[in-house]
Amino acid sequence: MTKFRTLPPFGADQREVAEVVRGVMDGKTNNVGYFTTTVTATSTVLNDERISYDSAIIFTPMNEKGAQEMAKLWVGTRSRGSAIIHHASNAHVCEFMYIIVG
Question: Which pLDDT score, from 0 to 100, does residue 34 have?
Fold first, then answer.
């Protein structure tokens, strides 16, 4: 996971704020990650500190096998810091990128 610059909870100087705002305006919102399914497994635990109970998790396939399996991919239980991703049991590895919203 790439770490992007954040601001301290109680403010920052103008330069720090400008750098973070510019990153956001350039699409760098610090909500992207990657995961790979395990051969023959039917679920994957996605651990990410940015996930919460009400997060939406959106997927993009990163290989051909992942693209073929998109219709069988869904988010189950979400909790603070993790989510269960359900998928088909396959004899191959599927790779995905995800974004977290909320």
Answer: 95
Query: What amino acid is encoded at 99 in this protein?
Result: I
Per-residue confidence (pLDDT) for residue 3, from 0 to 100? 64
96 within 8 A of 67, measured Cβ to Cβ: no
Q: How far is CA 22 from CA 8, 10, 17, 47, 78, in A?
A: 17, 19, 8, 28, 31
Q: What is the pLDDT of residues 71-101, one digit of tens each?
A: 999 999 999 999 999 999 989 999 999 999 9
Q: Distance between CA atoms of 88 and 59, rounded to whole angstroms?
A: 15
Domain range for 9 is 1-30
* DSSP secondary structure, 16-38, as one string: HHHHHHHHHHTT--S-EEEEEPP
Q: Verify that 76 and 93 share a domain, yes or no.
A: yes
